[in-house]
Amino acid sequence: MDVLAQQLFNGLTIGSVYSLVALGLTLVYGILHIPNFAHGALYMVGGYVTLMTMTTLGLPYFVAMFMSILVVGGIAVLMERLVFHQLRHSPPIHDKIAAIGLLLFLETLVQLIWGADYRSMTTPFDDIVSFLGITVTTQRILIVVAAVLVMIALHLFLKKTMIGAAIIAMSQNREGAFLQGINANRVAMLTFFISGGLAAIAASISSPINLVYPGMGHLVILKAFVIIIIGGMGSVPGAIIGGYILGFSESLGATFISSDYSDIIAFVLLVAILTVKPQGLFAKGAH
Amino acid sequence: MSMIKRNRIALIFLLVALMAPLFTDNQYYLYIVTLSFIWTIAVYGMNLIGGYTGQLSLAHAGFFAIGAYSLGLLTVDANVPYWFAFVLACLITTVVGFFVGLIALRTKEHFFAIYTLCVGYIIYLVIYQWDELTGGVRGLIGVPPPSPIGPISFESAESNYYLVLAFLVLVFVFMKFLTESLIGRTYVAIRNSEELAQTIGINTMRQKLVSFVISTFLAGLAGALYASFVRFLGPEISYTMTTFDMLTYLIVGGIGTLYGPLVGTFLIVTITQSLQFMEEYRMLIFGPLLVFLVIFYPRGIVGGIQMWKAKRQFKKRQKMKRTSSTSTHEGGD
């Protein structure tokens, strides 16, 4: 029973991180219909900026995280302006190739600046707490709490503010949004900023329990794609639910099947889903 | 005569390629060029499904690895005669490609790219984790070189070079006929608009599947050649980074062009190999280059040249028209 509870909590932690990454991906997809392969690189840069601000500038964890949000958000906005905006009239295959180009560039750049070593991030949250028969570090609790807070904040932003409503409107119907006088450029830039910020937060809270290295985004981004396909491309609640579904299935699969193949679960899940429903689960109506 | 004239660029390429070993004693150069030819074959596969049929497949490093590992395992562990193993390796890749394609091609556009990316990753994970079969991280050592065909043996670098070149020529000729045929134009029609292709009576699913299967066959063929040329296999050849490398060759050369894979692969492989420091940091240049090319020259070097030629011809024709019209004018006066 304890093992199960422990694994369920692990699933909750991993799922929280996945959800945050998938949220950024799904927001961008909803607005611009770009599968941003470079999103994993943003996640990776987020981890590095937080780590480096802490170690070289000696700033506290949360300040470093804030810096990271600004930097990664900024990079994401630049990506939109310099690349995806230029490609808005090109065939969809070009967006994907450009995104791959960006991913390769960012990864190599980070490797050039900070090296390819695996680094660990130490935070003030390494105490161990026991409750309900499970033992966890405070960092893991922080991950869950922070992720939920960010999701609530994002929800309020999207539902209660005008600019949030503009993002929703544009993802529902582009032309309709333009007719309402919504500034497409501003919405696109803002969406990319939020998307980058979410990736930075996800990387900053998860790095202390994982490691920071140039390839840390590879698996995460692939899994985030699996999640948004499960949850419906562009759907915000879908990304959150999908993230937790994947988190739980991985932690349970690692315990009860094999930890060697826990990474493969996501892909098998995806292959199975797309085999049965080529449009993904919860696809919106006809094309 | 006209056939020679029409294909003069291809023939010049072939002549240079045939003569190349006579001019250099440097085994290393020969090795690099042979390697670039092997990758070219794989990139032709990617070009067929991505460039002509318009479906970006990101699993091709996986199929390349399936071809390579099939050959390696069949010759090293199962002691199958080399050329029989070679045919089997291509066949295995093609069969896997068929079943993957059957499912993958039901998805469209972004879904297809993501799906194939995940398939590629599954292939990588399986090769990496299945130690008992593939050797996992340690890799597969001691793949034999191609066994002699009649009197010709493939021990030396030159003979390997000519063997790979022969396969490349076959692939090129095949691609030329395929893309210039009705089937090739069918693929382009699907690329331009799948709905439109359907309305003119094209069975798009079947055509896409055939195109995908051929493309995986080419990847498997390249993989098999790679295995017996490099003679060591590691799981990293199936990693997504290898697919991205192949994509870079294709985009630089020109996606959807006949000469693109040839030009792009040769240029990039030789440049990265001759500048050793580039090996690790090559993507610092090639990443932005990919972005630059899709924005400004979406059809790469070859596409750019074709465009320039077309423009020049257009201008020339206009000029001729103008001069002829003025001359008739003068004549009329």
From TrEMBL, chain A:
One GO-annotated biological process of the protein: amino acid transport
Q: Name one Pfam family in it.
A: BPD_transp_2
Keyword Cell membrane among UniProt keywords: yes
What do the Gene Ontology cellular component annotations say?
A: plasma membrane
What is the superkingdom listed in this entry's lineage?
Bacteria
Q: Where are the transmembrane segments?
A: 12-32, 65-84, 96-116, 128-158, 187-205, 264-283
GO molecular function: any one?
Answer: transmembrane transporter activity
Keywords (A to Z) from UniProt: Amino-acid transport, Cell membrane, Membrane, Transmembrane, Transmembrane helix, Transport
Q: How does it sit in the membrane?
A: Multi-pass membrane protein
What coarse category fits the chief subcellular location reported for this protein?
A: membrane
Q: Which CDD domains match?
A: TM_PBP1_LivH_like
Which InterPro entries does the record associate with it? Answer: ABC_transp_permease (IPR001851), BCAA_transport_permease (IPR052157)
Record localization:
Cell membrane
PANTHER family the UniProt entry points to: ABC TRANSPORTER PERMEASE PROTEIN (PTHR11795:SF452), BRANCHED-CHAIN AMINO ACID TRANSPORT SYSTEM PERMEASE PROTEIN LIVH (PTHR11795)
Family statement: Belongs to the binding-protein-dependent transport system permease family. LivHM subfamily.
This chain belongs to the protein called: Branched-chain amino acid transport system permease protein
Source organism per UniProt: Geomicrobium halophilum
Automatic annotation (TrEMBL), chain B:
On the tree of life, the source organism's domain of life is Bacteria
Q: Which organism is it from?
A: Geomicrobium halophilum
Q: What is one cellular component GO term in this UniProt entry?
A: plasma membrane
Transmembrane feature ranges? 29-49, 56-76, 82-105, 112-130, 161-178, 209-229, 249-271, 283-308
Q: Which GO terms describe its molecular function?
A: branched-chain amino acid transmembrane transporter activity
InterPro entries in the record, alphabetically? ABC_transp_permease, LivM-like
Keywords of the record, alphabetical order, are:
Cell membrane, Membrane, Transmembrane, Transmembrane helix
Q: What is this protein called?
A: Branched-chain amino acid transport system permease protein
Q: How does it sit in the membrane?
A: Multi-pass membrane protein
- Annotated localization: Cell membrane
The record ties this protein, via Pfam families, to: BPD_transp_2
